[in-house]
C-alpha cells in the first residue's frame, strides 16, 4: 500500500502512526512537509518538502485572510503533487491534517486515492471557545461572519474526504452531520510505558535548587501562557495558594507567544500581564517560569508534581493533560467540555469551575494537605490513561486498523 501523509509540520499528530505504517511490510510511505530542515528519510518514510511561494495579499478583506492563506498553501501542495504524479507516484491512501489548507486539492490530483483528514476542531459562533470568557467579550459584530468563512476550509474538505479521525469525542462532536458520522474517534496515543511515575525523580532549578518529591510542587503547563488555557485564572489563584502553602514551589511551563486566541495590545505578552497583576502578592522566589523545556525534562516535571493544574476553554484537549494522568499526577482541572472524557470528578481528578479562582485555590490546597487522596486520584488517573489512551496497546492498533479499513474502502465509525 502506498500512503501519503500531509502535514505542514510533519509528523505532528502522526508521529506514531506514520512510522508504524512505514515499518509494515508491503507499505511505502511518503510525507509532505514545509519544514526546511527535514531530512530526506525519517524513520523509514520518504519526506517530500514543498514551499509556499508567497504570503497573503496586502489589504485583503480581513474576513478573507484565513481562506486566502489556506488557498495559497493548498495550491503549493497541489503543484508539488502534480509533479509527483508526473514522476509516476500514485498513492492509495492520503492522510492529512487539513487545518492549514494543504489537502484542499489533493483529490483533484489523485481522484482514485482515499483521502482521510484529521478533524481537530470545527469553529462555532457560540457555545464553544468564542464568547466563553466574559473578560474577553466579542466586540466586533462581524466576528460571527469571519468565523463562518473560517469554516469554509472544513466544509470544502467534507466534499472530498472519504473518512476522518479525531482524538476525542468532544472534538469530533463539534463537527456537523452528516460529516460527523464519517469521523472515527481514536486518540493519537500516549506511551504510558515511558510516561510513567518515577518516585526517585529530581529536578535542579537554576543549577542550584534541587527538587524532589519530598517538596510540595504545583505544576502548570501550556504551550504558550495565555487565557485560552486558563493562565490568567491560575495566576489569580496563586497568591491564595501560596498564602496557605508558603513552602510550596510553583513550576510553570510555557512560552510567551500566543497559540490560540487574540494577542494582547501594546506588544506585551499574557505572561507578563497577569504576572504583574499579582506580583505584589507573590513570593517570586517560589514561582518559577521555566519557558519551553525539552520533552524529557517536561516528563520529569510531571513525575515531580504534587498537584497538577490544567485549565482550558471549550477547545481542543492538550496532550499534556493525558501525559500528566499517565505519570500519576493528582490533577485539578476546569469543568469544561473537553475535560469530561478524561477527568471524572473525584475519580481521576478534581474539577472546578473555570472562573472560580477561590475554588481552584481551595482544591489545590486541600490536595496538598491529603497525600492519601492524591495517591488515589493519581493511581486512578494513570489506570484510566493506560486503559483508554495507551499508544501501543489501544490507540495505535486502532489507528492501523482504521487505515487498513480506509484502504479497503470501509471507513470505521465510532
TrEMBL record:
The keyword Transferase applies. Keywords: Transferase. Residues 26-194, 214-383 form the Glycosyl transferase family domain. InterPro entries: Glyco_trans_1, Glyco_trans_4. GO terms for molecular function: glycosyltransferase activity. It holds the Pfam family Glycos_transf_1. It comes from the Bacteria. GO terms for biological process: lipopolysaccharide biosynthetic process. This is Glycosyl transferase. It comes from Ramlibacter tataouinensis. The lineage of its organism: Bacteria, Pseudomonadati, Pseudomonadota, Betaproteobacteria, Burkholderiales.
